[in-house]
Design brief:
two-stranded antiparallel sheet; mainly alpha; elongated; disordered C terminus
Length: 327
């Protein structure tokens, strides 16, 4: 009777190749209110995260060249210029707001996954796919917030460890969801009971669903691995994922043909990271220096205008010499 016992769906029609004629509504999963709430909260979360990054009030974020170019363009707008007073005011506010939105995305994603698995005996293939999509949506949105909260969570190890544990739970459930969607007939059985395909999964993974399954698993593993590494930043993980691969490189040649050691490569990368983190401060200092230079030039011009011109020593010597010769 399988995992569902007496609640197991009737899979006779599906096994005989017949498709179920009607979709059964499930507003708790695919209702317009549920989907709209997911989209709205995710949009607000991503928007606030990007605003924090663009305004340069995020601690520990690694700006790339595109980020620095966009940041420099925004600094030309007087109301958006970065200064320490504005950062000290907005930084704790944005981190607290982002923390609440991040928690919401993490817990909502877990909740929708738990709901989908609890209803596996009665849920249709279509609604199970909606569960998977909404969970992916919340997961990606949550990982976006980690760019803003990286230093905040690093300063609070207990809070960080609980978050990592919940993230790993979401990761495991998403892997299970993606694997169950690898049935070769998944895309052709939208209104069939999902449990019928789950029971028939062994040996029937293939086709387009299998290709999507592999691609999604690769993206999921990469995304969660990089997110956890950014949060933990332990020496063991750095040694495993960075020091060992670099140590296997005997030499690395730069574009100028110079030979540098792996240690020098890592030192250069750390220096680039420090330069990226101080990009906003350098722009602010450059702006202040320009203002001071202009003020000094204005003062100098004013003094020059108020004093009579003084002949140069060279001209005086020349005139004296000429008079001496005439005598």
């Amino acid at each position: 009777m399988g995992l569902c016992g007496y609640a197991a769906p009737n899979c006779t029609l599906w096994a005989e190749g017949h498709d179920y004629s009607l979709y059964h509504a499930d507003p708790d999963i695919a209702g317009i209110g549920v989907v709209s709430a997911f989209v709205a909260t995710s949009f607000v979360t991503v928007a606030i995260a990007h605003i924090s990054l663009l305004l340069g009030i995020v601690r520990g974020y690694e700006y790339n060249e595109i980020d620095k170019w966009v940041f420099a363009q925004l600094q030309t707008v007087p109301s958006l210029r970065r200064n320490e007073k504005r950062i000290q005011f907005w930084q704790p506010i944005m981190e607290s707001l982002m923390l609440s939105l991040s928690d919401q995305q993490l817990l909502v994603g877990l909740a929708i996954l738990v709901t989908g698995f609890l209803k596996h005996c009665s849920i249709s293939v279509y609604h199970f796919a909606v569960v998977s999509d909404l969970a992916w949506f919340s997961s990606n949105t949550h990982m976006t917030t980690l760019n803003v909260l990286q230093v905040y969570l690093a300063d609070r190890p207990t809070l960080r460890n609980w978050r990592v544990a919940l993230m790993l739970s979401t990761f495991v459930m998403l892997i299970a969801t993606i694997t169950l969607e690898g049935h070769i007939l998944w895309f052709d059985s939208w209104n069939s009971p999902a449990q019928c395909l789950f029971d028939d999964l062994g040996g029937n993974i293939g086709g387009g669903p299998q290709q999507w399954m592999i691609a999604n698993i690769v993206l999921l593993v990469y995304g969660y691995t990089s997110a956890v590494l950014r949060l933990t930043k332990s020496e063991k993980m750095d040694s495993l994922f960075y020091d060992r691969p670099v140590s296997k490189m005997e030499q690395t040649r730069t574009s100028f043909g110079k030979t540098v050691s792996p240690e020098q490569v890592k030192k250069l990368q750390l220096q680039q990271l420090e330069n990226a983190n101080s990009a906003g401060q350098e722009l602010q200092e450059a702006s202040k220096e320009t203002d001071r230079t202009e003020e000094i030039q204005d003062d100098t011009n004013t003094e020059n205008d108020s004093e009579p011109p003084i002949a140069s020593p060279r001209r005086i010597d020349t005139e004296a010499g000429g008079r001496g010769q005439s005598m």
